């Protein structure tokens, strides 16, 4: 097993593989980095000379790609050659929640990871370090090792050796480049034998090109795997905690931002991740917590499982609560009413919409026959329609069950909307002014900075009255908007 590498491959050119490898290539010009994917369109977009076409929108990413691409950073669909040539292979493929069979709706679907391991086993002719970059359940390295070793067993004596490392990624979307350039820590877990130690050394050497050594943590492999799920569970738990309190603030007249500030100044609690919202989204928090819950049930720890599951249930509740407030305020029905959505992405500064609260809020408003008009600075119409269509086919059972359990929110089981119905009721606009014209209400779903800078008087003048604003991110200037004449409701604002 090499303890230094000059050739890296990464399988999966998504939100993690693309930016992570671009930064490794930028910071390590002596290492050739090839990112491969089975999706040819994605690879073509990564190779597009027009950098605005990169498949992942992240502030600063275009400059990193411009610096390293075709120097030592390459994007390709030739998975086999990349595997063959590399000494170190990152697996950075998607690990979504299973939508079928055993563990449906809870466990991580590891079929893509397994396919990568099988492909590496088939193609490799020399020793390789295999790095888990995807977020995986604890003990997945064991499964990868079993697959890799089975190829070695098949050809004893001539076959390559493998070492499996866990190197979870902690970047957040929207700040990926900043996070990668200056991570709080890099975590590397490895096997305890000599090969494992050499492999860890090789990966530490890569990061040490720009990350101070004291921030590169090395652990046992199982600790590293479990730390990733734990980090996401803790982060999401803070959001659900403050969102739970936002409901109490609304009943009592307390202001959730003041409460968050007051508790956040306690250094033991800290100020970050205490922003109340319409609910967390993103491809990972829900998926990773459900995966943790599944693991706890698997290991017969039902109390631990229930504890973490509550974080996701509370998040479902928060999305419903926001929607219910819109319907209640608009005189108990939104049927035929025009609701403008500002934002569709799951957070600002990204074009990613996976699990965005906006999708769930829209779906529930559509169940009540609303007309929805969306403006998002980075999300195209095709994505919005695809998100709504996907939800129709993949509602989580928990989500359906949660609906009638909210007091006063007795409703039918959600109807499945056809693509045609979705297209009739949902309209996507190129400007915020077009989206909000003649609207009965505006819902702010994403915290894009530009939303604060609009001509709110102009928006007010073009809306139906009373003009309601539901600020699901608490980003707008409430006093200013009230002065104009808006009826504004925020999250946790008594
Ligand atoms: P993604 O869906 O954006 O990208 C995954 C890519 O892998 C896709 O382009 C897909 O075509 C490709 N792929 C799948 N199977 C393949 C195969 N056999 N060969 C070649 N390519 C293949 O996913 P992502 O957001 O980059 O997430 C990847 C992993 O990283 C997940 O496990 C996720 O939990 C984890 N993660 C994500 C983030 C994030 O911010 N998105 C942060 C930390 C960790
Ligand atoms: C999150 C973690 O922050 C990363 O460390 C991790 O690597 C990543 O998941 C992952 O594993 O995929 P990400 O989902 O990209 O990153 O973005 P976050 O900034 O964590 O935001 C997640 C969601 O929580 C967003 O919808 C955001 O709007 C919401 N949020 C965040 C709040 O509602 N309140 C907050 O205080 C913070």
Give an overview in words.
By secondary structure, the chain is of the alpha/beta class. The protein folds into two domains: 7-211, Rossmann fold, CATH 3.40.50; 254-490, NAD(P)-binding Rossmann-like Domain (Rossmann fold, 3-Layer(aba) Sandwich). The protein has 19 helices and 14 strands. It has helices spanning 17-27, 40-47, 61-68, 79-85, 111-123, 140-154, 176-181, 194-207, 221-252, 256-264, 285-298, 302-329, 357-367, 381-393, 397-405, 419-425, 432-436, 456-462, 478-484, and strands at 7-11, 32-36, 73-76, 88-91, 128-132, 162-166, 186-190, 216-220, 338-342, 371-375, 426-428, 441-444, 468-471, 487-490. The strands form two sheets. The chain has an eight-stranded mixed beta sheet with strand order 3-2-1-4-5-6-7-8, sandwiched between helices. A six-stranded parallel beta sheet has the order 11-10-9-12-13-14, with helices on both faces. Helix 9 runs parallel beside helix 12 (302-329), helix 12 (302-329) crosses helix 13 and helix 12 (302-329) packs across helix 15 (397-405). The chain is globular. Nicotinamide-adenine-dinucleotide binds next to helix 5.
Beginning-to-end CA distance, first to last residue: 61 Å
Which parts are unreliable, with pLDDT below 50 for 5 consecutive residues or more?
Answer: 400-408
Number of domains: 2
Count of runs of 4 or more consecutive helical residues: 19
Instruction: Write the CATH architecture name of the largest domain.
Output: 3-Layer(aba) Sandwich
Q: What is the quaternary state of this protein?
A: single chain
CATH-assigned homologous superfamily of the largest domain: NAD(P)-binding Rossmann-like Domain
The overall strand count is 14
Shape assignment: globular
Roughly what percent helix? 40-55%
The CATH topology label of the largest domain is Rossmann fold
Strand content: 5-15%
Which class of secondary structure composition applies to the elements? alpha/beta
Bound molecules: nicotinamide-adenine-dinucleotide, uridine-5'-diphosphate-glucuronic acid
